[in-house]
Write a structure and sequence with these properties.
- By secondary structure, this protein is an alpha+beta fold.
- The chain has a domain at 641-758: Jelly Rolls.
- Helices cover 59% and strands 7% of the residues.
- The chain has 39 helices and ten strands.
- It has a five-stranded antiparallel β-sheet.
- Helix 3 runs antiparallel to helix 4 (71-86) and helix 22 crosses helix 24 (389-401).
- The N and C termini lie far apart (98 Å).
């Protein structure tokens, strides 16, 4: 009974496999893929179990032997046979691979057979390909030649050699490629004899063969290619490069000969080959001949020596500093910064920093900063302390470039030096090295300096070290106190530091100075406030406008405030209206007041309406006041409603957030409609692209209307602009709805709006 059970189970498995094979044989590309999925599951489940793999293999061969199997089924079977046969022991007989041998000669199936056989190891498979080649022609033969080359079948060399001549060009080229891939002495010999081949084809395949040939055979091949004038120059250069790898003992001698010749393409290859050779040997080989080569070659060779980084190259680089060609001197200076350094090299580089050629001086400074070697840092520190003034200045600058914080005491002592260039270099280095704890010393230096260059460098150093203190509120106190207590001349020298430090405390300090009676100090202070980096200074300017005794200072404060408010597109607040009210009250000039009424049109708070209405009786400001009132009343209706032709979240353009945007492909038919909720006058639209400055409308057309169903003709058309597209509307433009269209295609970028600003 047990025997009957196992027999039934075995029969069930055989039937199941047969059914699966039958289903696979009818596989189509667009039909049911379950049989293929089942096959892949069985293949994965077989793992490395030889018996299970043999079962799957039998199923695959059965599909290929079936006379009615579809092309899709045979392709699937061959793809999986290739993976399976590649990982199993090779079969001894060609018959074991039936029907793949026949498929190799079938116009329809030969590529499928290659899929299965090409990865399979073993002489039997090699024999199948060689045998098929002898019986093939046309496209089949080309495919078989390719497979034989990939498998590197040495036995086919005579047959391929015969096809190099007397066959069509495609067969000849394919045979040459296969011979190069096989890479045996006999395949290389066949290629060497095939002089009728195009020189480029023959040379390419000989180079490929040389990668697998024994060394002596490979040397003979590349020597032949190097000496053959018919071989294209790039391939002769490649042969030279291969010869360097094959015979390192003679490589340097060959490279030197190439560098002395005139073939620049060959020189580039030769110099690149140096990377695989001992740097010390390269340096010794180049020491004598380098100076006799042309300037471009010398420059390239010096760069190669620098890459090697051997100390033996230093004398060669030093000698090249005297070359008449700038490109050689530049290469030598750059090389010295990468080669092992000495105090003597540091001295030569320091001398070069004073060269008339600014580029050479720049490279010399960079190399001196990079120079590394025994005693170099100590020598730089010693030469910064003593010596000629010009040389000391160079080494003092290097203390900062090399981040030598141990030099701080020396730098501070240099304040007592009599030479201006030494003091200037020292205080500049302090700006790079000094911690905030040295603020008092550098502040005193900046206060006492009388030379303009020294003053500028000291002030920059003072700002730099002050900004290293993360306590924003406290870090500038000593500077503020010093400026406010200093004589006018000193205050004027220190005052530019306030704008660089920034912050409310610095702005308040500048405001107090602007209220001074001394006109020079007051004017300089108000000018500094006008150059402030952000609009946080606006309340300070309002204070100056209200309190300054001098009319010119008050007017400057008001004008600076107007510019800051105009540039500031942050959402309007009630505090902004209060600020504008203070500035309007600080001046009686209609021309100065007018910009503030224009700005009031952005207001979104009710207190702005009576503020604008106050000026309705002023003949010079009445029109501006009415405009502002109408705009504010529309703003009070709420955030505009937005819809668009496409793209997500069109409301992003009026959400007051510079980080959001609306974006749509620019095909030339896009639009965005903005409902202002109430009719209002309009003078200017700004389409801010935010961080996507290139995503402006290619061409725009703007319609302003009270009837969106009949918007009428465009009131203005034009081309978009990078970063912000500013659109000036005709006088008298008014309406509730804005319709903004992109009317031309942009293939490279979309159309984006981060924020829409109305004025």
């Amino acid at each position: 009974m047990i025997r009957h059970f196992f027999s039934a189970l075995l029969l069930s498995g055989v039937l199941s496999a047969a059914e699966s094979g039958s289903a696979l044989a009818s596989l189509t590309y667009s039909g049911d893929q379950d049989s293929l999925a089942k096959l892949d599951q069985d293949l994965a489940a077989a793992g490395t179990d030889a018996a299970k793999l043999a079962t799957v293999e039998s199923r695959l061969f059965a599909v290929l032997r079936a006379g009615d199997s579809t092309f899709a089924a045979r392709q699937a079977a061959c793809q999986r046979l290739g993976r399976l046969l590649a990982g199993t022991a090779p079969k001894a007989r060609a018959e074991d691979y039936r029907p793949l041998a026949a498929m190799l000669l079938d116009e329809r199936d030969f590529d499928l057979a290659r899929l299965a056989l090409e990865p399979a190891p073993g002489a039997a498979v090699d024999g199948l390909f060689v045998s098929a080649l002898a019986k093939s022609s046309g496209r089949i033969r080309l495919g078989l030649i390719d497979s034989l080359g990939r498998r590197r079948v040495a036995a086919v060399v005579p047959a391929l050699a015969a096809l190099l001549t007397g066959a069509d060009a495609a067969t000849s080229a394919a045979s040459a490629h296969a011979l190069g891939a096989i890479g045996t002495p006999s395949s290389a010999e066949a290629l060497l004899k095939a002089t009728a081949l195009p020189p480029a084809v023959r040379a390419t395949e000989l180079l490929a063969a040389s990668q697998r040939l024994p060394v002596e055979d490979a040397k003979r091949v590349v020597r032949t290619l190097k000496e053959d004038a018919t071989v294209p120059s790039p391939l002769r250069a490649a042969a030279f490069r291969r010869s360097v790898d094959l015979d390192p003992s003679t490589a340097l001698e060959a490279i030197v000969r190439v560098c002395a010749a005139s073939d620049w393409e060959m020189k580039q290859v030769a110099l690149e080959a140096l990377t695989g050779l001992p740097p010390a040997e390269v340096a010794r080989a180049f020491a004598q001949p380098l100076s006799r080569w042309d300037a471009p070659t010398q420059a390239a060779a010096l760069a190669a020596l620098a890459e090697g980084g051997d100390a033996a190259a230093v004398p060669t680089a030093l000698a090249a500093l005297a070359h008449p060609a700038s490109e050689v001197r530049l290469a030598a200076l750059a090389a010295l910064g990468r080669l092992p350094g000495t105090p003597a090299v540091a001295d030569r580089l320091a001398q070069a920093t004073t060269a008339e050629a600014s580029e050479e001086a720049k490279v010399a400074r960079q190399s001196l900063a990079r120079l590394n070697g025994p005693g170099v840092s100590a020598a730089i520190l010693a030469r910064a302390e003593k010596g000629e003034a010009a040389t000391r200045a160079v080494f003092l600058e290097q203390l900062a470039a090399r981040h030598m914080s141990e030099a701080l005491p020396l730098l501070l002592r240099c304040r007592q030096e009599t030479d201006t260039s030494v003091r200037t270099a020292a205080v500049g280095a302090l700006g790079e090295l000094a911690p905030f704890s040295e603020q008092a010393a550098v502040l005193a230096w900046a206060s006492d300096a009388t030379d303009e260059t020294e003053q500028a460098r000291a002030l920059r150093a003072l700002v730099s070290l002050t900004l290293r203190n993360r306590d924003v509120a406290a870090r500038g106190r000593a500077i503020h106190a010093a400026i406010e207590s200093a004589p006018p001349d000193v205050a004027l020298r220190l005052l530019p530091a306030l704008g660089r430090l920034g912050g409310t405390a610095s702005a308040d300090c500048a405001a107090r100075l602007a209220l001074r009676d001394d006109p020079r100090v007051a004017d300089a202070a108000i000018a500094a406030l006008g150059r402030w980096s952000d609009a946080t200074v606006t309340p300070v300017l309002a204070h100056v406008a209200e309190k300054a005794a001098r009319a010119s200072v008050r007017q400057s404060a008001v004008e600076h405030a107007a510019r800051f408010l105009e540039r500031n597109r942050e959402p309007w607040k009630a505090a902004t209206t209060s600020l504008v009210a203070r500035l309007l009250a600080a001046t009686s000039s209609s021309s100065v007041r007018k910009p503030f009424l224009t700005l009031l049109a952005r207001a979104t708070d009710r207190s702005a309406v009576p503020l604008a209405e106050k000026f309705a009786g002023d003949a010079e400001l009445a029109a501006e006041a009415r405009y502002a009132v109408a705009a504010i009343q529309a703003n009070l209706e709420g955030t505009p409603k937005v819809r668009a032709s496409g793209g997500a979240n069109p409301g992003n353009i009026v959400d007051g957030k510079a980080t959001s945007r609306w974006s749509v492909p620019a095909l030339g038919e896009e639009w965005v409609e903005v409902d202002l909720r109430r009719s209002r006058p309009l003078r200017r639209l700004t389409l801010d692209q935010g961080t996507r400055g290139n995503e402006y409308p290619e061409r725009y057309a703007v319609h302003v209307t009270d009837d969106p169903k009949a918007p009428g003709p465009a009131v203005v058309t034009g081309s978009g602009q990078r970063n912000r597209t500013v659109i000036t509307l005709p006088d008298g433009t008014a309406g509730r709805y804005l319709l903004i269209k992109n009317t031309a295609e942009r293939k490279d970028t979309p159309w984006s709006i981060s924020e829409l600003y109305l004025d």
